[in-house]
Design brief:
The chain has 193 residues and is mainly alpha-helical. It has helices spanning 2-18, 26-54, 62-90, 97-167, 173-192. Helix 1 (2-18) packs antiparallel against helix 4 and helix 3 runs antiparallel to helix 4.
Length: 193
């Protein structure tokens, strides 16, 4: 956005100087076209950023999405108005002061709409980051729930084995191996958590 603002400023400054004499010569016309084309390139970059943000599946805030879309539409519509006004100025061999004034107002409005769009895009990126963080946190919680469930299952299995083996008062080598296996499983689940 700073690049767009810089390009608009450069175009405005050059236009003011070039049109002071009331005549638009070929060199001035070419320079103005180049400067306006540079703005178009920067606007294309903004378009790409908008598409990337607006199509991100983690942008789940509908109100923010709507604000983003409205701000983008206002921004692109203002650029199109600016383009029409610019072409009217460039297409004439003499300078129409009223058209230049209209164009200057359109440039100011375009810059302000760009600032608004930039802020909403920043808010949307923050919302996307928050959504991703929440998703990661929820996945971690689910993994912990699963591990705790595994520990509970291992404890239940150990308890069942112990209750069965200790009823008789004797622990056979086979039962002792089973108990060690259950304790080992419990240790593994503890380490997973």
């Amino acid at each position: 956005f700073e690049d767009v603002v810089g390009q608009v400023g450069e175009l405005g400054a050059y236009m003011d100087g070039a049109l002071k004499d009331g005549i638009l010569d070929e060199v001035e016309r070419n320079r103005l076209n180049t400067l306006f084309d540079n703005i178009g390139l920067e606007v294309n970059d903004v378009d790409a950023q908008f598409v990337s943000i607006s199509q991100n599946p983690h942008l789940t805030n509908v109100a923010l999405f709507n604000q983003l879309t409205e701000a983008y539409d206002a921004y692109t519509n203002k650029y199109e108005e600016m383009e029409v006004a610019f072409n009217e100025i460039i297409g004439s061999s003499t300078v129409d002061v009223e058209k230049v004034g209209t164009f200057n107002v359109l440039m100011e409005e375009f810059v302000e709409l760009g600032k608004t769009l930039r802020q909403i895009m920043t808010d949307a990126l923050s919302s996307i980051s928050t959504s991703i963080s929440e998703q990661i946190a929820e996945q971690a919680k689910e993994e912990i729930r699963s591990e705790i469930s595994d520990v509970s299952d291992a404890l239940g299995s150990l308890e069942d084995t112990m209750n069965g083996d200790f009823k008789s008062g004797l622990i056979s080598t086979m039962n002792l191996t089973t108990l060690r296996s259950k304790v080992s499983q419990l240790e593994t689940e503890k380490a997973d958590i």
